[in-house]
Specification:
The protein has 382 residues and is α/β, with parallel strands linked by helices. Helices cover 45% and strands 15% of the residues. The strands form two sheets. The chain has a seven-stranded parallel β-sheet, sandwiched between helices. The chain has a four-stranded mixed β-sheet with strand order 9-8-10-11, with helices on one face. Helix 5 packs parallel to helix 6 and helix 12 packs antiparallel against helix 13. The radius of gyration is 20 Å and the shape is globular. It starts with a strand and ends with a helix. 48% of the residues are buried. Bound molecules: NADPH dihydro-nicotinamide-adenine-dinucleotide phosphate and magnesium ion. Magnesium ion binds next to helix 7.
């Protein structure tokens, strides 16, 4: 069969993973060769039966054993653990790897994929936040593309097409999340259920909580720095409640070029998979006349102080962005288990950043050491 696009998906059972498979359903020219999940083997089995990949990884070892039995009637190879995830990332028949796992778990398999010469459709922003200096260098050395899936970065990437990349400033839009307009005091008693309600986007739990604290926007500032080679100070975050203008670039002549569309991840995923082609998209047309107002405002960095912490971490570089991200991962986990309060998420990040000494130009080992240290600090506080 002549497939033009051959892909593997790390995290096929998540929000980005399942929407990637929706795109595959719409375009028979895309073939999925390898997929992975952490433990959701019910959905993974359905996906395996529908998309017939050669290789499937279940990261959780026990679940992997159960999964093997379930699919024993199929000609599929099942792997497990972190090594199995890297096998999915490097599977020979795929030339694009969609990195749709959550958290720092995306870093190693993405590095492995780049070393194996795969282009990366990058959803896992934590990869660039924690290992940006290593990953971008490797991508250049192996001549592979980092194609952004994150909607804002896809919008910036689309705005840059055909331009000499002399960026004056990036305008990175943020919905403002469910607590826009609130003060710190208003947020004292926020529960996980409150924070899991995002006004415009339907996403996995971690990124939804991160959107409500603006940690997600902070991670995206650092992601943009690496993807587009701009200084943190040249990335301006704008709160845009309608999530229609997905981000923009201001060029040296002050022209602002943006990409607009409905708040739906399908276009950014599809564009990353089929770039530089633009394939037709069913539905989801933007009706601009339905929006009487598109509003833009500066973010409230007093209430949402994690955004300032992210910029600080991004400017300092070294392991600081890892400390920012990993303390957040641990704090979100504790918040979702009702073990810390909502405001303690950002406070935990601040505490970790203040307690750990930075290391310049960290190695992968330094990054994972920093990850452990940051998590321990957060767990010890709870
Ligand atoms: P989800 O939580 O919905 O999905 C995560 C996926 O990764 C699942 O397949 C899950 O498996 C798997 N997974 C979870 N933990 C691990 C682990 N430790 N090792 C390996 N695999 C694991 O996340 P999202 O799809 O929302 O987000 C994925 C990435 O994309 C994140 O980095 C996020 O920031 C980014 N992103 C997401 C957007 C969105 O709209 N959702 C928008 C822009 C970026 P299982 O189902 O078995 O738990
Ligand atoms: Mg985003």
């Amino acid at each position: 069969m002549d497939f033009r696009h051959n892909i593997s998906i790390l995290g096929s059972t998540g929000s980005i993973g399942t929407q990637t498979l929706d795109i595959v359903r719409a375009y028979p020219g895309i073939k999925v060769w390898a997929i992975s999940a952490y433990s959701n083997i019910d959905l993974l089995e359905k996906q395996t039966r529908e998309f017939a990949p050669d290789l499937v990884c279940v990261v959780d070892e026990e679940k992997a054993k159960e999964f093997k039995v379930r699919v024993s009637d199929l000609p599929v190879r099942v792997t497990s653990g972190k090594a199995g995830l890297s096998e999915v990332a490097t599977y020979e028949k795929a030339n694009i790897v969609v990195t749709a796992v959550v958290g720092i778990s995306g870093l190693i398999p993405t590095i492995d994929a780049i070393k194996a010469g795969k282009n990366i459709a990058l959803a896992n922003k934590e990869t660039l936040v924690t290992g940006g200096h290593i990953v971008t260098k490797l991508a250049r050395e192996h001549n592979v593309s980092l194609l952004p899936v994150d909607s804002e970065h896809s919008a910036i990437f689309q705005s840059l097409q055909g331009a000499e990349k002399k960026i004056k400033r990036i305008l990175l839009t943020a919905s403002g999340g469910p607590f826009f307009g609130k003060t710190r005091d208003d947020l004292t008693n926020i529960t996980p259920a409150d924070a899991l309600k995002h006004p415009n986007w339907d996403m996995g739990a971690k990124v939804t909580i991160d959107s409500s604290t603006l940690v997600n926007k902070g991670l995206e500032v650092i992601e943009a720095k690496w993807l587009f080679d701009v200084d943190i100070d040249d990335i301006e975050v704008l709160v845009h409640r309608q999530s229609i203008l997905h981000s923009a670039v201001m060029f040296e002549d002050n022209a602002v070029i943006a990409q607009l569309g409905t708040p739906d991840m399908k276009l950014p995923i599809q564009y990353a998979l089929t770039y530089p082609q633009r394939l037709p998209m069913k539905g989801n047309e933007l009706d601009l006349a339905a929006y009487a107002n598109l509003t833009f405002a500066k973010p409230d960095t007093d209430t949402f102080f994690a955004l300032s912490l992210a910029k600080k971490a991004g400017k300092e570089g070294g392991i600081m962005p890892t400390i920012f991200n990993s303390s957040d991962e641990a704090a979100v986990e504790l918040f979702l288990k009702n073990k810390i309060s909502y405001l303690e998420i950002s406070e935990s990040i601040q505490n970790a950043m203040e307690s750990i000494k930075n290391i310049e130009n960290p190695t992968i080992e330094d990054i994972f050491e920093a990850d452990k240290l940051a998590r321990r600090l957060v767990y010890d506080r709870s």
